[in-house]
Amino acid sequence: MIDFCVLGSGVSGSTIANILSKKYSVQVFDKARGPGGRSSNKRFKNNLSFDHGVQYISPKTKLFTKYIKKLYKNNILKTWNENHLDFTFEKKTSSIKYIGKKANNDLAKYNLKNIKKSFSSPITKINFNKYFWEITLEDKSKYQFKSLILTCPFPQLKRLAKKYLNKKILKLKVQMQPNITVMIAFKNQKNLPISSIKFNDNILAWAANENSKKRFKSNLNLWTLQATINWSKKTINKYKIDKSIMSQLITRFIELTGFEKNKIIFKKIHGWKYSYNFQGTSYLSLWDKKYNLGICGDWLNGPKVENAWLSANDLAKKIK
Ligand SMILES: Cc1cc2nc3c(=O)[nH]c(=O)nc-3n(C[C@H](O)[C@H](O)[C@H](O)COP(=O)(O)OP(=O)(O)OC[C@H]3O[C@@H](n4cnc5c(N)ncnc54)[C@H](O)[C@@H]3O)c2cc1C
After folding, report:
1. Quick check: CB of 181 below 6 Å from ligand 1?
2. Best substitution site from 38, 105, 279, 307 to test ligand 1's pocket, by max atoms within 8 Å of Cβ?
3. Is 62 exposed, middle or buried (0-12, 13-18, 19+ CB in 10 A)?
4. 3-state DSSP call for residue 227?
5. Of 2, 29, 149, 203, which residue is 20 to 30 A from 82 by alpha carbon distance?
6. Beta strands in the chain (DSSP E)
7. In which band, very low, low, confident or very high, does the pLDDT at 217 lie, cut at 50, 70 and 90?
8. Cα(174)–Cα(279) distance, rounded to whole angstroms?
9. Is 300 touching ligand 1 by the criterion CB < 6 Å?
10. How far apart are CA 320 and CA 315, in angstroms?
11. Which pLDDT tens digit goes with each residue over 136-168?
């Protein structure tokens, strides 16, 4: 029987799987088609590639900085430091921004390189049978493991594992904010020397110029647009049926930048229902010896890749 089942291949899932795999057998399951979770990358025909979740990593703590520098040295990450502008279009000076060499899920991919993993595999049921865990996938297949690690955001965790969480955890006030992201490609639009723009607007929060990440050669100009939290809250439950939501975000981008709308030849929208928990909780991770059940993820300690990584490392220490 495999020692650990890890639900989730995002930053926290891939990190804990990587650490545990040095000592134990591990298998990772993710409902998505590929690795990365909220740091994943969307690819479309004709070389179109967008980081539709995590934009960049700016490490703050000593531990995480050391780890990021190692990935940089190993050619997994690179820097993305050219022209990041605020809404006045003035150049902003700020800390170093790291991105994946090929895409922002490179970190998760690197962590999972030698680990058994199954994608398009949503775990729909978990059951502890006194000595081991039995997990059931959507296709009704069942697998057994000695221990289980759950890295999904809190609302999904509560739905799946309610029976095994103590009252204190169940009562946590965790509010995960949504995010609406739109990916667009322009034809014959001059690629300006701009990496990203931060807006002071009630609809559009941020736009990233994917071409400035210098990962691909294309005659198209690709932008990822991220909406403000307030506007995302209003639109997250209807963006799939209401096509005007994507148009509104694009129109605002056009108004604020002066780009030409008729040059847009590709557009796609993505809604992140559980993007960030800004408040965090008083926990970094959770390990329940009685059930051999571990919980980690950014929702416990803050809305960044760094928090997800720190949470996974904290859990690994508890397990050891
Ligand atoms: C739009 C957006 C922009 C962001 N920008 C930045 C940024 O620039 N910098 C930064 O540091 N952070 C950023 N963040 C935050 C960052 O994405 C997260 O902090 C981090 O990726 C969380 O990682 P995680 O592993 O904890 O969770 P997740 O990445 O959410 O991983 C959870 C995984 O569990 C899987 N899963 C869930 N339920 C099941 C199930 N039942 N069965 C199987 N699999 C399941 C999911 O598919 C997912 O892959 C951004 C987030 C969003 C949404």
Report:
1. yes
2. 38
3. exposed
4. strand
5. 203
6. 2-7, 26-29, 41-44, 48-51, 77-79, 84-85, 98-100, 116-118, 123-128, 133-137, 142-150, 177-187, 196-198, 204-209, 220-227, 264-276, 286-288, 293-295
7. confident
8. 8
9. no
10. 9
11. 999 999 999 999 999 999 999 999 999 999 999
**Residue 92's pLDDT band (boundaries 50, 70, 90)?**
low
Domain ranges of the chain: 2-48+103-173+279-319, 177-276
The confidence score (pLDDT) of residue 93 equals 59
For position 45, what pLDDT does the model report?
A: 84
CATH number of the domain at 2-48+103-173+279-319, please? 3.50.50.60
* Euclidean distance between CA atoms 222 and 243, whole angstroms: 20
Does the CB atom of residue 53 touch ligand 1 within 6 A?
yes
Question: Across all residues in the chain, what is the average pLDDT?
Answer: 95
Token pair for residue 306?
């760094």
Provide the pLDDT for residue 229. 97
Q: What is the pLDDT of residue 211?
A: 94
Does the Cβ of 232 fall within 6 Å of ligand 1? no
Pick the CATH number of 177-276 from 3.30.470.30, 3.40.630.30, 3.90.660.10, 3.10.20.310: 3.90.660.10
Give the Cα separation of 51 and 33 in Å (integer): 15
Q: Note whether 94 and 60 are within 8 A (CB).
A: no
